[in-house]
Design goal:
Residues 29-149 form the LD-carboxypeptidase N-terminal domain. The chain has 364 residues and is an alpha/beta fold. Helix content is 23%, strand content 21%.
Length: 364
């Protein structure tokens, strides 16, 4: 088995990540929509998810920026930012879980007081898609561990997939002992319209197969600290304090750093352009490995055009670190819950794999 890079248990790490307390029954969860809100046609789904949290013993508080959608957001920028800050600073709130992502979370970045949050008790924030536009800065600027995983609208009682149903268990873990998640058996291609079927679970129809970019099925282990998010949004943070991934990589030292990304809509040409931009901004230098989720971009119909896998090979094929793709991350669920800032061991063999995460580094 190949090991990248070293996984030293007692290495000195300059990155100081603060892990929130494990979620417990009785804890207060705040539901707000910092990006897209929830139209009335989707309220039945939202209420089902909220009641499911309550059935698990959590208390739930709803924000005012939630049950509406105007101009692609739940509310004007300053209102969304103020509500999110209030929940993040409230010592009684243990977690903030948006209903889903959207498109305009980036509007909040220059309004939120990330520096001020350093004096607040860290709490979990869970989600993916545009929510990751907030998760990455929370980790890189504020130092809080954040959870890239299922959205609230995925967390309904009819759900049976272990990765999705296990998301809250990850947040309930101490992380002093590794939390292990295994690759799924099948994944979803087509999203269900919650307006028509408000209680519908994931429709897992396609066989899951993790892949190595070098084409090998041989065993591989990658170790390092996790950081990442939605390819379409977090890559636009490169060069700013909100996306200072190079500093994260450098500070992770000999333990290493693992970047994960998941493509929503970028064409193969767009993938190449953004990956080249990340390389120029130093996001790829010194990585232990790169994890890529299943892409949801429209497939290429013309055989003469560049295809997605070809775009990855042409851009990343000569990198010194291993690249895994088609992993359980992102918009083709189910997906794992990945903790930004956590120490991770990613094991791959024969098209399947596991990701173990902990708050301290793994032994060799």
């Amino acid at each position: 088995m190949l090991l990248f890079p070293g996984g030293i248990a007692n290495a000195t790490i300059a990155v100081m990540v603060l892990f929130p307390e494990p979620l417990r029954p009785g804890d207060l969860i705040a539901v707000t929509a910092p990006s897209s809100g929830v139209l009335p046609t989707m309220h039945s789904r939202l209420e089902l998810a909220i009641e499911h949290l309550r059935a698990q013993g959590f208390r739930v508080i709803e924000g005012a920026c939630l049950r509406d959608q105007r101009r692609s957001t739940s509310a004007p920028r300053n209102e969304r930012a103020a509500e999110l800050m209030r929940f993040l600073q409230d010592p009684e709130v243990a977690a903030v879980i948006p209903p889903w992502g959207g498109e305009l979370a980036s509007e909040l970045l220059d309004v939120l007081d990330f520096e001020g949050l350093r004096d607040s008790k860290p709490k979990w924030m869970l989600g993916y898609s545009d929510t990751s536009t907030l998760l990455m800065p929370l980790t890189l600027v504020t130092g809080w561990a954040t959870a890239h995983g299922p959205n609230l609208m995925d967390l309904v009682p009819t759900q049976s997939d272990p990765l999705t149903t296990g998301a809250m268990s990850v947040l309930a873990s101490h992380l002093q002992d590794p939390v292990v998640q295994a690759s799924s058996e099948r994944y979803q291609v087509n999203f269900v319209d919650y307006a028509d079927q408000f209680d519908e679970p994931l429709q897992l129809t396609e066989p899951t197969r993790w892949k190595r970019l070098d084409g090998s099925d041989e065993a591989l282990e990658i170790r390092g600290r996790l950081i990442g998010g939605c390819f379409d949004t977090v890559t636009l943070l490169a060069g700013s304090q909100y996306g200072d991934v190079p500093a994260f990589i450098q500070s992770s030292g000999s333990v290493g750093a693992i970047l994960y990304l998941e493509n929503v809509s970028q064409s193969p040409g767009g993938v190449v352009r953004l990956l080249l931009s990340l390389r120029r901004h130093g996001w790829l230098e010194g990585l232990s490995g790169l994890l890529l989720g299943r892409s949801t971009a429209a497939p290429e119909e013309n055989p003469a055009d560049l295809h997605y896998e070809g775009a990855l090979i042409s851009t990343l094929g000569q990198e010194p670190f291993p690249v895994l793709f088609d992993l359980d991350i992102g918009h083709r669920p189910p997906q794992m819950t990945l903790i930004n800032g956590a120490f991770a061991s990613v094991c791959f063999e024969g098209g399947a794999g596991t990701i173990s995460q902990a708050s301290t580094a793994f032994d060799r």
